[in-house]
Structures are given as C-alpha cells and as structure tokens.
Amino acid sequence: FDLHQGVSSIGATVVCCTRIARGTRRRTAVVDDPFVAHQIVITENERVAVLPVNPRHEGPLAEMLAESSPEDVRFRCCAAIKGFPQMMAARLVYIDPQRETTLIAQSMDGRDAVLGVVHIVCERKHPQVAEFDIMVRTDHKGHGLGYRLMQEILCEARRRGLSAVEGFILRENRAMLLMARELGFKPVMAEGDMVCMRAELSGASSSLSAEVIKRSQETTRRP
Asked: Which helix (H) or strand (E) holds 166?
C-alpha cells in the first residue's frame, strides 16, 4: 500500500460531507458495542474485516486520513480543516455509543491497515434520524468497499431502530450521489452546492428492507 495514493473514492470520489463540531470533547470509546465483527468479500480474492472502532484504531485512521487529497477533504468536510487527520480520527473513535456508530474496514494481510470508515450520528433534536459519512482508501476504489460499508451501516441503523439515514453530498460528488441512489436514498433538500439524500428505513415499502440488503450482500456490487 502506497500511502501517497491517499484516500479517495470508489469509482471517482466516494466521500460524503459531514459537519465537524470544533472543540468537541473527547468521549469514552465504544467498548461493548453489540455489533459483531465479521468478514466480507469485496473481490474474488480479497476479504476484509468489518468491526466497530476502538482506541487502537485512532493511529491507523489518522494515517489513512493524513494522505487524503485536498479535494477528498473538501468532499468529506465541505471545507479545508487544519489538523484534519488527527481531529477526524479522534472524532470517529471517541464517540457517544448511545447516538453514534463507527465501523471500519480493516485489511487481513497482517498489517491491519484501515481501508475505509463509515459513521452515523443521531442529532439530539432528531434522535430517530442519523447523519452518515464515509471515506474509502484510494487503492480500494472500484472494489465495492464503499457500497458494502454503506450496507453495513444501514443494517446497523435498522438494528438501532432508526427511521431514516441521511447525508449531505456535494453536487459534484457524482459517484457518491449515484451510490446513494442505488442504495435507496432520495434527494429531500438542496442547499447551495449540496444535496441532502435520505433513506427511509421504516415501513414495508422501504427499499432498504433486511431481505434486500441480505440479497445484495451475497454479491459484490460496484458503486
């Protein structure tokens, strides 16, 4: 893995914008998360581990984020942020387990490198709706990892009993918009150069039913 390849997309740039609260207090990391770590297949010959984040992942996460391109940081945070790798790694690791989940995809080649990360957080005013953000390492674009991580976090959102998951995506981030639509997200609001995409998780008509997700996980999907 060449760190100078940075962090980027699946297909193009599959990174979703999220808003970072400056001066966020460090919280206790998740220890007894009910999410069960498991393996997924992203290509014919490659398996990765999907597991809930813990404190030992802070360094590898910061390493992954440190090599992200300026465009990736902008797609991820909608702005350039000083100290982004350390700030974001800590933000993703030290979470409030009552309101948040962070899942990472980790290599199984002995290096335990972080290949991707996905996160949801429920706002206090709307506890049944979570905002998601996702980032995948450049050398794993086109492997379907971003799609699979989104499936994993949507399943976790369902397990938590959430009613919807949404994300703010820059209009120019076409790969992310396309993947969101394939996963059942629909545009619900536009604000400047951003689009809010939402997936409804409740109701029999939801395109994100457990059975649909189960079937889609049986094959590798390109984002």
From this structure: strand 164-170
**Interacting residues of 140 by C-beta distance below 8 A, sequence separation 6+:** 10, 42, 115, 116
Structure tokens at 206: 């939801």
pTM, two decimals, is 0.76
d(CA 14, CA 31): 29
**By three-state DSSP, how is residue 217 classified?**
helix
Kindly state the tokens that stand for 201. 């998780």
**Three-state SS for 84?**
helix
DSSP percent split of the chain into helix, strand, coil, nearest 5? 30, 30, 40
How are beta strands 164-170 and 126-137 bridged, if at all? parallel
Contacts of residue 91, defined as CB under 8 A and 6 or more positions apart, other chains included, come to 20, 24
Query: Could you report the per-residue pLDDT of 141-179, keeping only the tens digit for each?
Result: 778 999 999 999 999 999 999 999 999 999 988 989 999
The residue written with tokens 């506890």 in the block is 127
Long-range CB contact pairs, 117-126, < 8 A, 24+: 117/53, 117/61, 117/64, 117/92, 117/149, 118/149, 118/150, 118/152, 118/153, 119/18, 119/92, 119/95, 119/153, 120/153, 120/156, 120/157, 120/165, 121/95, 122/162, 124/99
